[in-house]
Amino acid sequence: MDKDKLWKDTLNLLKLSVSSATYGTYLVHSHIHDLKEVGGRVVIEIGCMSFYIKAQVEQRYFGLIQDTLSKILEKPVDITFIVKQSTVNSQQSIEKPTPLFDEPKVNKQEIDEAIKNARIRPSYTFDKFAVSGSNQLAHAAAEAVSKNLGHAYNPLFIWGGVGVGKSHLMHAIGHVVVSKNPRAKIIACTAEDFTNDIVDGIRNKTTAEVRKKYRKLEALFIDDIQFIAGKDTAQEEFFHTFNAVTTAGGQVVLTSDKPPSEISKLELRLRSRFEAGLIVDVAPPDFELRSAIVQIKAEERGLKLDPDMVSLIAGNIESARAIEGFLVRLFTDINLKGGELTIDNIQKIIGKNNGLEESKIKASPEEIVKTIAKYYSINKRDLLGESRARIYSRPRQILMYILRTQINLPYQTVGRIVGGKDHTTVMHAVDNIQLLASTNVDIQGDLSGIKKMLLG
Amino acid sequence: MKFITSAENLKRTVSTASHFISAKTQLPILGNILISASGSKVSFSATNLENAVSLKIPAKVEKEGEITVPGKTFLDIVLNLNNEIEINEDKEKIKISSGSFKSTILGLNATDFPKIPNTSKKEGFVIKKSELNTALLNTLFSLSLDETRPILTGVLFDFIDGDLYFISTDGFRLSKIKVDTKKTPKDFEKPVVPKNILYEILKNESEEDVFISIDEKNGQFIASIEDCLYSSRIIEGSYPDYQKIIPDKHKLRVVLDKEELVKAIKLASVFAREAGNIIKLQVNSHQSKVRIVSENQTTGSQENEIEAKVENDEDVKDFEISYNYKFIEDYLKVVKADEVVMEFSEESKAGKFLDSSSPTFLHLIMPIKNS
Lengths: 456, 371
Known about the structure:
The complex is a heterodimer. Chain A is α/β, with parallel strands linked by helices.
């Protein structure tokens, strides 16, 4: 029902019942703010320009307006009044911003150039970083650092496993700094780059220049700092660089796969420097976060995924990087090979994909069988047997799923291992678990538990 | 209704109330003032449905009651009376007598008069009148008169960490001042209060404290000073994010004598007013001088140098910025200190104007871009 039209009709009728002065003063500037049907009755909220008008209309024209609306709608109507200025006028007033509030035109080109020079990854921004419980602290710390460079936490040490978003956060800080001041001196590099620069400096007798390059920075971002461990000259050079940057009020951000205390062959003085700032860890993404990542990455590539597809992917692929790889593959499949974007196709690619991306499990099929039997506390004979009871059939399907997707065995082989099943049975089982992994929390928990046992 | 009161009180009250009646209204009752007598007080109320006022004066009430009378007529009579005034209501008419003068004014029944608040809410905060006056003078001049952007036509009451700030902007300049409150205000939904009611409050000569409350549900702002109760609607909409446009750094700081600047601006305006109001401020850091230049292609040009204290960053030696002189003139009218402090960063960015006598008052003016 069109609120504006309804109100217009109502006004036309009301005009006949009240004096034109009353109409012009009280009624014409009111509007229907909200309208909903509740069990056969229509509840209408009428917005009046000011309290005085509301009080007057409510007191004197309540019955008249209610009757008129009921007549038009041919339904019983309840009305309430609120003070609310009509949105029609305010919408018109959204026009070009006045000079004072006109965003200063920052030179896009200049920023892009600066990002390139600082070697910041262009796509790693805070906007594209999904936050959940596993990385919330790290995200908050990075944001605080970006807002108050050199003062909030110095150094900021982010550690965590592969593809959890450490570098993303670090580079995102760089983006904020550059967008505020494209002329800020920042370098983002890996420990490897840093070491190479030092080596080059020694070889070409340009150590002084290398020092100048690193020591006069407003912000220094180094990825995978653990690689510096054990390299004495690089460590010493880094120690002095670190001191030079921080004493001048510059920010240092480091990432690593381990906390400083666990990096072996790291000089003690460096370790204590690292520990003086904030150390945050980023845990592997949970299912919800992975879903968010899938959505963000899919949007970047212009893929429109249904919620079902998103959870299917998030349920079956563990790391953020693997998700990206998967989406590249899916994108290629659809755009170049002319495939269709369907659940089936996604399932097919997941099957292939996992072999490539996540063949971390190096267990033999026998070990996997044993592990799953142990995980579910069932007899190995029952697991590989014929019983269709769910307590046996579900673990059996999971077994097939893992054998197929994790160690990449052909369907027939899987069938043979699981007590001489037909390859179609295996295919059905794998599909089934793939689907369940996207929706069923228990299965997700079981899968990650089993994987952990296999890896550990 | 029948009461006797002094002419002086009545004049003051009725003239204030008359500011609130609608001059052009289709509905006669909105051109009326509501008079109601009860206890030992008589109240006079008026509204134009945007804002309202209710004023009480002491009177010898002989018979309680209420009526409305045409505000303009009533005011014109009352203003010319000097003796004690007796007002007597009789069948939608009032009879006024004062000394030898007698008059009858035709009124309207009070029941049709819009309902206006007659008590303030309990929740609120108190501001000293002198403090409020300063804050209003420092903000009212820089709000917008352009009704197409209603949100800028009022003063924003911003609550930041328990402190109250008044903000006004017309999109070219902005004023911000902290207002000391006696009771810490609770965090209200930051209201934007229309200028008219604020001008009325400013006009009130009382030096008593002002109690302000905000009725969020009804979108209403209520202020009371002694026996006067002002109320107004609040402007709806989202106020622009002004915090982010306040520069936090400057490269150049100039301190000038206020009187000299006032004179120089006045002289510059002779040519500027027909040339887009543009004047140029040229800062020469070596000579510690500011040159004020204006020119008009058809009438002529002028330039004028005034002594200044200049502090500058190394990379800023000579600096030129163009302004609409009216904005600077408006600002100079409210500055109390003898010196004017200006801070600049770039010729295309807003300059910051500070008042050393009022450290929480900040004014920004956007320069005119050189084409």
